[in-house]
Amino acid sequence: MSGMANEGSGERPVALITASCRGPGLDRLHELCDVHYDPWIDQHPLRIWDGRQLAARVDELGATVLVCEADVVSGEVLDRPLRVIGSTRGDPTNVDIAAATAKAIPVLRTPGRNADGVAELTVALLLAVTRHLVPGDHDVRTGEVFRDGSIPYQRFRAWQIAGRTAGLVGLGAVGRAVKWRLEGLGMNVISFDPYSPDATHSSLEAMLDESDVVSIHAAPTPETLGLMSAARFSAMRPGAVYLNSARAGLHDLDALTEALRSGHLSGAGLDHFDGEQLPAGHPLLKMDQVVLTPHIGGATYDTEVNHTTMIAEDIDRLLAGERPLYCVNPEVLP
Fold this sequence. Notes:
With 334 residues, this protein is α/β, with parallel strands linked by helices. The chain folds into 2 domains: 14-113 and 300-332, NAD(P)-binding Rossmann-like Domain (Rossmann fold, 3-Layer(aba) Sandwich), CATH 3.40.50.720; 115-292, Rossmann fold. The chain has 11 helices and 11 strands. It has helices at residues 24-32, 51-61, 97-102, 115-130, 133-141, 152-155, 173-184, 204-209, 230-235, 253-261, 301-319, and strands at residues 14-17, 34-37, 65-68, 84-87, 107-108, 165-169, 188-192, 213-216, 240-244, 265-270, 290-292. The protein has a 6-stranded parallel beta sheet. Strands 2-1-3-4-5 form a 5-stranded parallel beta sheet, with helices on both faces. Strand 4 (84-87), helix 3 and strand 5 (107-108) form a beta-alpha-beta unit. Helix 4 (115-130) packs across helix 7. The protein is elongated, with a radius of gyration of 23 Å. The two termini are 18 Å apart. The model is unreliable at 1-9 (pLDDT under 50).
């Protein structure tokens, strides 16, 4: 693609990039624009700008291209003559899409950027839960390998996951990435997704009844929030394992806690919580059969390479007068 100059002028656009970017895509952005690279994630203490702060920086630089990940793109910054906003997220929730659309500013996104990273963490959670890795690690570190006159083989016996059935809720980019990984480990993988023709089940309850492991990969929408309710946890097989590497809002946390406390579920692996952490003293914090990680599924350098490439290629298309592939509001395009 060409796309090296502003439409109607010989000047290169100025880009303010506050997302964490790397790889060939960042090199391409430098070829396309005069780049001011100031990633939010490298700041200590952590820095997240609002629309007013972004507007001040855009004014200072004369930027017309804005690429953000965590900063909130709303308010004053949308009054600036921005040619494009890139959000390095699958769902650009940090951008006021309606206001950007009203200003005729195209907004780009990066669907599937972290699918492999989240899928890998899902597998890690599954193995950590089923093979008791966290309590086993604890016993070694604290010198309690022969705790209470027992040996680890007694305390940590487990079923292999090979030959078991995993039920996936959602067959988007992450669900598909999880599917082939679990199949590669010898699992039978079934699925529920009313929007995917590849799903094996049209009934969530029927899928739950057949699954030794249930893993959630749905997007949080009004339709899916609270999807895993008390009734649906009860519909899971006794002794099943529950995994959620998506969003906490997809399940009823109290119902999940009770299903684990009662022993109906044998374990759980969770990578997200409302407010990004569990409140102090929450019962899950004391359950050895539960593995908790702090929303790190997509925290890979590869995710940054992926989203940078996708944003750079779409900015290139826009500057060349072509249609971008991942524009949230294509109605603003010529």
